[in-house]
Design brief:
Layout lengths: L1 H12 L6 H6 L1 H24 L7 E2 L10 E2 L20 E6 L2 E6 L3 E2 L5 H4 L3 E2 L20 E2 L2 E2 L2 E2 L3 E2 L10 H4 L25 E2 L2 E2 L2 E2 L3 E2 L42 E2 L2 E2 L10 E2 L13 E2 L20 E2 L2 E2 L2 E2 L3 E2 L38 E2 L2 E2 L2 E2 L5 E2 L3 E2 L13 E2 L20 E2 L2 E2 L2 E2 L3 E2 L38 E2 L2 E2 L2 E2 L5 E2 L3 E2 L13 E2 L22 E5 L2 E5 L4 E4 L2 E4 H9 L1
Antiparallel strand pairs: 1-2, 3-4, 5-6, 7-10, 8-9, 11-14, 12-13, 15-16, 17-18, 19-22, 20-21, 23-26, 24-25, 27-28, 29-32, 30-31, 33-36, 34-35, 37-38, 39-40, 41-42
């Protein structure tokens, strides 16, 4: 440490004016002192490392190198302390100053969201119109224009497509003129679309469109200089449109009114009418009213139409209806027309009142006006099960609810144990368990196998288990758990409670000498020194091995003999 002090004094002495000649003369001495001093510093830092003490702003961050080699005052990878690395962030200059990380935005960038630690200097303030030149400095926006930022300075607004600044006051009202549609400024300011007679001129997409004639006018000569010169609302030669000449129909004069040929004012010849339009259609007076049943004698005078019949008009008068083939007026009432389909009605087969023979629960069809006895069919819900052909009893078997003929002849619904099987709407229904029985295993092969009226594991319903107590049985009676008649299993008693407690029949009475065979039945001890036990609920008293009863106690056999010898 004395060498360091000497070097320090040497440096302080160097602040005084220096004689270069003297310095050159003593250069070897200076280099020698510097070398010695650096060695002293190295030795000193090594000693400091040895004593776990580093000079200020130095740390031993690399154990493989001797001494305090890292200057944490300025090292961005060890800023303030070993391995404390300053973040690398987008568009950010990172420095370590005084042992603390310092972050500065690069030129043209700004931390406008105040989240430099998260996303760095996210804003390009050179071209961001909302942050032009610096954060929070937006370029002024005006209507129908775009104001941009270039190199950090706001540029003049540029009109959007289809708009223009025709009043030269852009900062006040922006690009106020829509040159895409304005006929007075079409495509550009002051570009006025040409106006012509009886027409409306439009501007579309900044271009003057072809004039559009007003209602009732047309440009029939294709010359826009004289505008829409033709009154198509009243010109019979151009009625409603150019060259649309009103046709003169037979026996008619056709005027042009409001652009339409007035065919409704045509006068028709005798025997004809214009019935298909309020105004004259191209077919003129199209309706012949002497034989047309829909316009018999006059328009819309319809001869009465009845079901399944044809009605005729003769000399402008309606005749009687004629039934169509396969139909008849069997009730003699023309109000419902030819109401009877004699081609297929078994009660009127081929003619009114011609009845096909019918069998019970069967239908004999009428086909093409003839009774078809070879194709008799059963009514819904019935079958002919007792005969290959139709017998007098007809379709005798009801198949909607008959479990032996369910839906078809001889289709017997399966019968299972303790259940009733039914036929419903021609389909075998799922078996229904009898009272007190259930199909708890979901297997109909063994039927309703579980007696839920008495099974404690399925009491009243499948999986409804009666609560069981230790060494006790809770019975199931009539589908209900009978907790008032719980019984103890053989060899056990409920001795600690008048009613069944959670411990159930807690007392074992086959070998318990205090409850032998019954609660509180304590086996008596009559001999002194004897052993009392309970076996199979019976009390036993016996002397220990090698002893026998003598009087009211147990004595050793040898002792008894010796006593008797004396």
């Amino acid at each position: 440490m004395d060498r360091v002090s000497a070097f320090s004094r040497f440096l302080q002495a160097g602040r005084a004016p220096v004689d270069l000649t003297s310095v050159m003369a003593n250069s070897h001495a200076i280099l020698l002192v510097a070398a010695v001093t650096l060695a002293a510093i190295f030795i000193g830092t090594a000693e400091a490392k040895k004593n776990n003490v580093c000079p200020k702003w130095y740390k031993d961050c690399n154990p493989r190198k001797p001494g305090c080699e890292t200057r944490v005052e300025r090292d961005v990878n060890n800023c303030g302390d070993c391995r404390y690395k300053c973040k690398t962030l987008p568009y950010v200059w990172t420095k370590c100053v005084g042992g603390r990380c310092r972050y500065t935005c690069k030129a043209g960038r700004g931390d406008c969201d105040k989240k430099i630690w998260r996303n760095g200097c996210e804003t390009n303030i050179k071209n961001d119109a909302k942050n032009c030149g610096s954060c929070g400095k937006p370029c002024k926006q005006v209507g129908n224009a775009v104001t941009s930022c270039l190199n950090g300075k706001c540029r003049n607004p540029v009109c959007k497509s289809g708009y223009a600044n025709c009043d030269k006051n852009i900062w006040s009202n922006g690009c106020e003129t829509r040159v895409a549609k304005d006929v007075n400024n079409c495509g550009a300011c002051s570009n006025v679309c040409k106006q012509v007679a009886n027409a409306v001129t439009s501007c579309r997409n900044g271009k003057c469109g072809t004039p559009v004639c007003k209602a009732g006018w047309s440009n029939c000569d294709a010359n826009w200089e004289n505008g829409c010169e033709t009154p198509t609302s009243e010109d019979p030669a151009n009625c409603g449109a150019c060259s649309n000449v009103c046709t003169q129909y037979p026996n008619a004069v056709t005027p042009c009114r409001s652009g339409t040929c007035d065919y409704g004012s045509i006068t028709c010849k005798a025997g004809f009418n214009n019935c298909n339009s309020a105004v004259m259609a191209p077919d003129g007076c199209e309706t012949e009213n002497l034989s047309d049943a829909n316009n018999c004698g006059a328009c819309y005078n319809v001869c009465k139409q009845v079901a399944n019949a044809v009605t005729s008009c003769q000399n402008g008068k309606c005749g009687e209806p004629v039934c169509k083939a396969g139909w008849s007026n069997c009730d003699a009432n023309w109000e419902n027309g030819c109401e009877t389909p004699t081609s297929e009605d078994p009660a009127n087969c081929g003619a009114c009142s011609n009845v096909c023979t019918q069998y019970p629960n069967a239908v004999t069809p009428c086909r093409s006006g003839s009774c078809d006895y070879g194709n008799i069919t059963c009514k819904a819900g019935f079958n002919n099960c007792n005969s290959a052909v139709m017998a007098p009893d007809g379709c005798e078997t009801e198949n909607l609810s008959d479990a032996n003929n369910c839906g078809a002849c001889y289709n017997v619904c399966q019968q299972v144990a303790n259940a009733v099987t039914s036929c419903q709407n021609g389909k075998c229904g799922e078996p229904v368990c009898k009272a007190g029985w259930s199909n708890c295993d979901a297997n109909w092969e063994n039927g309703c196998e579980t007696p839920t009226s008495e099974d404690p594991a399925n009491c009243g319903a499948c999986s409804n288990v009666c609560t069981q107590y230790p060494n006790a049985v809770t019975p199931c009676r009539s589908g209900s758990c009978d907790y008032g008649n719980i019984t103890c299993k053989a060899g056990f008693n409920n001795c600690n409670s008048a009613v069944m407690a959670p411990d159930g029949c807690e007392t074992e009475n086959l070998s318990d000498a205090n409850n032998c065979g019954a609660c509180y039945n304590v086996c008596p001890k009559t001999l002194e020194g004897s052993e009392v036990s309970c076996s199979q609920g019976q009390c036993n008293e016996q002397c220990p091995f090698g002893q026998v009863p003598s009087g009211n106690k147990c004595v050793t056999v040898g002792f008894e003999l010796q006593t008797n010898g004396e």
